[in-house]
Amino acid sequence: MKPYWYRVILTAKPAALSAGLAVALLLPGIGTADPTPARQTELRNLLKNDCGACHGLTLQGGMGPALLPERLAGKSDDLLVTTILEGRKGTAMPPWQPFMDRSEAEWLVGVLRKSK
Fold first, then answer.
1. In sequence order, which ranges of 12-94 are alpha helices (DSSP H)?
2. pTM for the full model?
3. How confident is the model over 49-74, as pLDDT tens digits?
């Protein structure tokens, strides 16, 4: 017997599958929860200490550019998340993907956009 998900896909109407796929592709953040409070603390420490080593302990810039809300205003969340996860070739910005996933990077971008 085929698995349940296989039977659902075969018996679902094409329009329903298309609509479901469109929603899943257009709204990738749905269902992603904020990191746990303990992980938020770890990410804030990483932001202060590791990011702060290049971007300044107050994130006002240093070897790397400032990470203040007004400096990030013209940049998309996707660009910032990608930069965090993949780094920037030809610069000192390393990839942080080994240390966090996409939803955590998205959370950090939110923190940066709200920081004063």
1. 14-26, 37-45, 52-55, 69-72, 77-86
2. 0.71
3. 999 999 999 999 999 999 999 999 99
